[in-house]
Write a structure and sequence with these properties.
single chain; 107 residues; alpha+beta; Alpha-Beta Plaits; 4-stranded antiparallel sheet; 5 helices
């Protein structure tokens, strides 16, 4: 199942409900698991992003639907990255560059 790292920044509206962080974290976990995703953790961070969530999802569409539903509440903005394990990355690299022949000038 593909893994994703979700970076969240609280909006002004979201900052008003920071006193309910633990409750919100539990609700996010339950919602993701209810949709068939595997929840690895939620972390509250310092810096540009306020929250980091790590999750596995059966597909992009399922995760995207959950992120859109969450964004519509107006409390956070998200940046999502697909994450690859070392084994997955090794398989990608071993497959070789797909565009190597295309990038070469014709002789």
């Amino acid at each position: 199942m593909p893994s994703y790292v979700i970076l969240m920044s609280a909006t002004d509206q979201g900052m008003k409900s920071m006193n309910r962080l633990a409750e919100s974290a539990n609700a996010v976990k339950a919602a993701l698991e209810q949709r068939g995703m595997r929840y690895h953790g939620i972390y509250f961070t310092q810096g540009v992003y306020d929250v980091v969530i790590v999750v596995d999802s059966p597909n992009d569409e399922l995760l995207m639907g959950a992120l859109i539903e969450n964004a519509m509440r107006g409390n956070v903005r998200t940046t999502t990255m697909r994450a690859f394990t070392p084994d997955e990355m090794q398989q990608i690299v071993a497959a070789g560059p797909l565009l190597a022949d295309v990038a070469q000038p014709a002789t």
